Amino acid sequence: MALGRARGDASLASFLVARLAQTVAIVFIVATLVFVLIHLAPGDPFSTAIENPNVTEAIRARWRAAYGLDRPLTEQYVRYLASVARGDLGWSFSMQRPVIDVLADALPNTLALAGVALVLGFGGGIILGAVQAQRAGTRTDRVLGGVALFFYAIPDFWLALMIMLLFAYWIPVFPVAGSVDPAVHEYMSLAGRIVDRLWHLVLPALTLALVVAASIARYQRAELLRVLPEDFVRTARAKGVSERRVLVRHALRNALIPIVSLIGLALPVLFTGAVFVERVFAWPGMGWIVLNAVGTRDYPLVTAGVIVGAATVALGSLAADVLYAVVDPRIRDR
Amino acid sequence: MTVSAPVVSAGAATAPSAERAPRRAWLRRVLPYGGRWAAIILAVLVLAALLAPWISPYDPNAQPDIVALKNLPPSLAHPFGTDPFSRDVLSRVLFGARISLSVAALATAIAMTLGTAYGAIAGYVGGVLDTVLMRVVDALLAIPRVLLLIALVALWHTLPLWMLIVVLGTTGWFGLSRLVRAQVLAIRERDYVRAAEALGAPGWRVLVRHVLPNVLPTVIVAATLGIGQVILLEAGLSYLGLGVQPPTASWGNIIQDGADQVATLWWVSLFPGLLIVTTAIACTALGDALEAALDPHRRTRGGAA
Predict the structure, then answer these.
(1) Which residue among A179, A324, B100, B205 is least crowded, i.e. fewest CB within 10 A of its CB?
(2) Are B267 and B81 in contact (CB under 8 A)?
(3) ipTM of the complex
């Protein structure tokens, strides 16, 4: 028993190490891709961003030298990787602050939005898929399937716009934009501030959750239909267990294991969805910050946002995989 | 989201008996249930896009009267209303269909070619090369595609249309390459492939003549689903102002034209969005139906039922 336990821990540890190495590799590849993109793009910060005829070529050359842009590409690449590894992501021109500070302010907002949407989306999707599977082939199944397909095929930003139109303008229940009420938030009590934040979170999180729920429901229905004909389900029915209990206690539990692995796959979708939803609702997260930086040509902020975004997704996937390995021991031995 | 699930069938069609209409029976087997509706909807959309210059009521870029005719709600003269530049939204949506559909089709063609070639080489050659190629794909799959596209497009300021197509195509083949590789791995062990190799056929010939035709169904399904995904992606980028550049209409940038004043100009954003959803639903339903029809296990089950 003890021996088996130790071996299990060892395989989990080696699984962890391998996945961690993969995560580091992903961040490295993204950082490299971004570097290549920056240098493939036409011009540099001093030939395109500043279009003042009084700035002579000599001045531009001096600026390039000051920022190390005259050095050989290999040297720039090594310096760049070293500073990314140290967490030095540069200076944001548009915000006049270190990039790392700007992103540190924005990241919690995105995590809050994505986290709430993840929980609501998975919860809703699992329930929807279970209802569909239980009534497979019926009218209810087809109608719900149609609804799921609709939200599966909807562009997130357009859904966000329509939800905003519906629940912020036509039925003005929720705020149109932002994460807090700009006029009175500062004067609220602590409880009032929390409610204010949550109130602003409802529509963006609902949008993202609907999109996530649609694809989870499609998957969950298929997974349950795979489990339902199995022998242990038939045994449970034969024992006289109620149909609801068969579904919830016996079938759903087994169908939930693959769902855990979906969290990792859902994260990139969730994160990119957040970029669009944040844009529509002016939610001050990573996506909003990066898109504004695109508008102001604030390249250090754009590129750092992409690297940090990819790193966040990679770490989230890592966490999901670890969770999966804990839930299902067979994964570690693959 | 790239999670594949089986068909969400829309209504069990009651088709005439097989003896009376053998051609329909064939069609039913190839395209069951919702698949046929999806195919018809897609055909109508493509036709509307092709005929846009003849069926559009107005010139999509004309600004007839920027004061009197701007921001008009839907009416008989302008079924989808007009935008802040007094342009007719219906005409823009019809011309936008040409851009959105052809960008999606071309980008998907690029992605399918790259994905098939990459997956086939990895699966057929095998060994260390396979391991390396698949590790690279794993890493690429883990990168949020939209973030990468935003960085790319932002650094280039504005991409010309052909570059946008190339960029969408070259970032869309990772998933397919894994599917193709898995199939090639299985197919290359079959007897007829072994026989061809034993007869001395060169590797590329075996791959092209004997292995790849068997991968084709997978590619067709992936292409159908992929077109829907690219439609959504192009719309998103164009909405952000990073995709198709105005005044050229695409469904995404028409939505953007109304987005800032969505409370008062809802018709500008609503109609192109509905068309995007319709197209994406049709592509997904058709892809699901094709997948079911091309999967031999499901086909026999469906035939027995």
Answers:
(1) B205
(2) yes
(3) 0.81
For β-strands A91-92 and A97-98, DSSP reports them as antiparallel
CB contact under 8 A, A155 and B273: yes
Cα distance between residue A305 and residue A166, in whole Å? 31
**Rounded CA gap, B4 and B225, in Å?**
10
Chain A's closest residue to B229, CA to CA, is A153
Determine contact, residues B272/B239, Cβ cutoff 8 Å. no
Report phi then psi at A150, rounded to 5. Answer: -60, -50
CA distance A298 to A301: 6
Scored b (16 or more CB within 10 A) or e, A253-285 reads ebbbebbbbbbbbbbbbbbbbbbbbbbbbebbb
B3–A291: do the CB atoms touch at under 8 Å? no
Instruction: Write down the mean pLDDT value for chain B.
Output: 82
If residue B300 lies in a helix (H) or strand (E), which one and from where to where? Answer: helix B296-304
Contact A155 B239 (CB under 8 A): yes
The model's pTM: 0.82
Please choose, from the candidates B292, B284, B289, B290, the residue with its C-alpha nearest in 3D space to the C-alpha of residue B230: B284
Query: How many Cβ atoms are within 10 Å of A244's Cβ, its own excluded?
Result: 9
Residues of chain B with pLDDT under 70: 1-34, 295-305
Name the closest residue on chain A to residue B280, using Cα atoms: A153
For the segment A8-35, the average pLDDT, to the nearest whole number, is 81
Q: What is the pLDDT of residues A1-18, one digit of tens each?
A: 344 444 556 677 888 888
Q: Residue B4's closest chain A neighbor by CA?
A: A219
CA distances for A279 relative to A89, A138, A309, B27, B142, angstroms: 23, 39, 16, 44, 23
